[in-house]
């Protein structure tokens, strides 16, 4: 396909969203609109890798720097996520409003008709400064747990959680292979407020090993902090192999 045909192809994609776009916007802006259209129409799913800069430049007959500008701006806008050495991915949807319900992973797995199982790696007290800071406490100890959640025996979530002992004093006495930390805490003291962020990033070797991931494979990492009354109840990082798990929430 020659350059004129490629330009027409871009225009056809972008005209679908805005008939004036192909005539009034530069090539990098047209490519941005094309990428957004691919995402909103469901062609490229959240967490999926998109074609490379070289591939897109060749496909549309433009300079690589034109594609690079488009993807860089979409990354700054939160539409895409770039992982060094791994590629560019469609960013997961980012929620910043208050979360009124936090779903339990065991329930999500059961809803798919599958079996949930869990391996408890750590269940201990911690005086780590980062843990105290995350919970807004001046002195420890706090409680710390690491749990790997599996669906039909395959690990899909690595949970690294700090817990406020004033809110959940019996946390270390629980069997989290029987009841998930999430279900236990909601049963004992339902959350009243939450905040969370989602990032695409590479896990360290410890997380990668427990999720049985290949070197360089990206994760979706959800960081969440919840409140019971005025106290920060828990701060947790939830790591998911991007190829094996879909993140969803209820607002």
UniProtKB/TrEMBL annotation:
Pfam families to which the protein is assigned, alphabetical: GntR (PF00392), UTRA (PF07702)
Gene Ontology biological process: L-histidine metabolic process; negative regulation of DNA-templated transcription
Gene Ontology MF terms: DNA binding; DNA-binding transcription factor activity
Record-linked PROSITE patterns: HTH_GNTR (PS50949)
Alphabetical list of InterPro entries matching this protein: Bact_HTH_transcr_reg, Chorismate_lyase_/UTRA_dom_sf, His_ut_repres, Tscrpt_reg_HTH_GntR, UTRA, WH-like_DNA-bd_sf, WH_DNA-bd_sf
Keywords: DNA-binding, Transcription, Transcription regulation
Limits of the HTH gntR-type domain: 25-93
NCBIfam families in UniProt: his_ut_repres
Protein's UniProt name: Histidine utilization repressor
Organism: Paraburkholderia solisilvae
